[in-house]
């Protein structure tokens, strides 16, 4: 029948055709190959492989990570990867995957430690392949590696182990995360995702200390790397124990600071000419915002020596409701740092760019963290490791395959739409499998150039 609509009327059926629906995700498989992630996970998880088993636990974990990277949010979404054996090889059944996660979840401490070691080795190899584009390339006290810490809330929609009421009157979990910042040129990558019950405190010093130690270990710079590492935390990190931990580890820090009750009196002690203009996110002058140092007029006894407190004042935006702690119509916020050099406005802008961590958390939630799908707490700890690996794959693919392209800054949703969910045709030619991507696809050249860059990198020997 003749169509009277604005779109063509297409007949639909099923047939055994050599087509691939997730062709662009081959870039993730190539990243796994050149970084050796599959081999590292295979070796790390070998104690949990049953004799005569057909599927390697390391391969199952990387397959699950790929499924999260392309948009999955539960174990059964692995079916999308299983449907593409020409791209990803044999993929375990749902029953096999479920049994593995159950076994790993029964010994979560040992498993998480083993996976973390595999991730660390792979990360250092990926950063080595990246050369000058690596986040650790040329780091020094003036240009440090930046590690951001932040917590987030994950809602549980059913009764799961250790799910609990949260401080925002919700119900679920309260994981604490650490991310390596790639600056404005990349999306950054997760170093640690520590799952905690929903009633875990936002400023629990012991949790921050554990995550800081694990993040420094993942970065491969030692437990006391010095000022070539900067750790940024919001106000939840402004505890004496956390700041003392940062001092003992000799890192630079920039931590949100809660102003005392007599802030209004302290504010009056700062002459107007002391306030200097603050910067906006692009480094230009921010109208109506200024910064000044309060270190000399505050009682900082009990805090580590060398700690500075820098305050930002800003007129609330039109329509904002004034708060009781606003002073002379200004909203005051502060942070503490041990950086002794640099303009105040530069230090304040550096701290405010910690907001990029919120983007990293949002991306992680778009890569499987928005809902923990399993019941057991140990199993969901393994799930958090899958989320971390998936987010790392996205970051390493951009770092190694597209270091100078805008696609390195694309968030998961855009990567899936433009690259990963690209249809293609599989063909055999001269004993090789060839992936034919349509020349009409708007981002075909990006996929080809990324694949070429990855194929040019040396894979681990052995």
Describe what you observe in this structure.
It is a single chain. This protein is α+β, with helices and mostly antiparallel strands. It has a domain at 19-107 and 380-456. It has 15 helices and 15 strands. The strands form three sheets. It has a nine-stranded mixed sheet, with helices on both faces. Strand 14 and strand 15 (432-437) form a beta hairpin. Helix 6 crosses helix 13. It is globular, with a radius of gyration of 25 Å.
The whole-angstrom Rg is 25 Å
- Please provide the ordered H/E string of secondary-structure elements: EHHHHHHHEEEEEEHEHEHEEEEHHHHEEH
Low-pLDDT ranges: none
Describe the sheet with the most strands.
Answer: 9 strands, mixed
- The best one-word shape is globular
Distance between the termini: 60 Å
In terms of DSSP E residues, the strand content is 15-25%
What's the arrangement of strands in the largest beta sheet? Answer: 7-6-2-8-9-13-12-11-10
Helix content: 25-40%
Number of distinct beta strands: 15
> Whole-number average pLDDT?
92
Overall SS class: alpha+beta
Number of helices: 15
Helix-strand layout with pairing:
Elements: E1 19-20, H1 26-35, H2 37-44, H3 57-69, H4 79-82, H5 85-88, H6 94-105, H7 108-130, E2 145-151, E3 154-155, E4 164-165, E5 171-173, E6 176-180, E7 189-194, H8 205-219, E8 229-233, H9 240-248, E9 252-257, H10 263-268, E10 276-279, E11 285-293, E12 308-314, E13 331-337, H11 344-352, H12 356-369, H13 377-401, H14 412-420, E14 424-429, E15 432-437, H15 444-455
Parallel strand pairs: 2-8, 8-9
Antiparallel strand pairs: 1-14, 2-6, 3-5, 4-5, 6-7, 9-13, 10-11, 11-12, 12-13, 14-15
Helix pairs in contact: 1-13, 1-15, 2-3, 2-7, 3-13, 6-13, 7-13, 8-9, 12-13, 13-15
